[in-house]
Amino acid sequence: MRFKLSDEHIDLYSTQGYTVFRKIVPPSLISDLRRVTDTAREIARQHGGPQVQRLQPIARYELPQQPFIDYAELPELVDAIAALLTPRHRHGDRDHFGVLLEPAQMPYCTAWHRDWRDNIPGLPLSMWEEGLLDINLFNQINCALYADSCTWIVPGSHLRRDLPREAQRFPNRPIAGPNLDGKTAEEREHLCLQYCRSMPGAVQLHLEAGDFALYRNTLWHIGNYVPYCKRATLHDSATTPEYVAWSERAIEVARKQRQAGMGMENPNPSPD
Ligand SMILES: O=C(O)CCC(=O)C(=O)O
Ligand SMILES: [Fe+2]
Q1: Model confidence over 72-105: pLDDT tens digits?
Q2: Which positions of the chain have pLDDT values less than 70?
Q3: Is ligand 1 within 6 A of the CB of residue 231?
Q4: 194, 152 in Cβ contact below 8 A?
Q5: Which domains, and CATH codes, for the chain?
Q6: Which of 222, 224, 225, 234 to mutate to test ligand 1, by most ligand atoms within 8 A of the CB atom?
Q7: Which atom of ligand 1 is nearest to the CA of 115?
Q8: Verdict on whether the full-model pTM lies above 0.90
């Protein structure tokens, strides 16, 4: 049955900062994309070692491109994104998107973060805050080719600055992940899960094969990975010319700020 966008999708996206188009990718395309991302995994590990998180952008590598073109042109997806956002929002730019992969050896997780603000040292906080509610910016995609429960989010956090309890949980910048030094695989898995759950209001996002999650990357989120869960999740954006321009400017401004000795700004500096 053809995917149909509902009012719930629109409501969830604006109020909670994420929505999932369930089973929007047809089995035949999942099959083609699984085949090509198996090769992407090999290439990623050749370049980045066994723990590598992603291969990005897709266009840079010697991979059959047709399955990615079919994904970019899938009419159901194009229509749903146009209806949820605007017809100017485009997914599937192969010069931009990539694939997220499971680690080969050891569990790990990223630190909790809000993209750009907490992972681009030198980016002025004011620049990020000015864009926070701009629907042309920060629309990210995880499109799962296998069941994927790696991503955790704090629903609704895209609409606001940090709550006091979030600032209290992560008072420092850069935000530290769990300390995994010298731990066994099982201990690492346990510590990462504990770290995910330590964020107030955190919920785990569960995707099935063919599900397409659209989320504001300005909400609090994290990726938590174990080697025994195979992952190939297309990691993409619904971009606009404004987002492309904003990203280029942000990268350039942050580079200059770092050159001038600036690090990561703390959005919640302690009063003393
Ligand atoms: O793995 C994920 O789903 C999230 C990854 C992420 O947030 C990041 O790398 O910035
Ligand atoms: Fe992120």
Answers
A1: 999 999 999 999 999 999 999 999 999 999 999 9
A2: 272
A3: no
A4: no
A5: 7-259 (2.60.120.620)
A6: 222
A7: 10
A8: yes
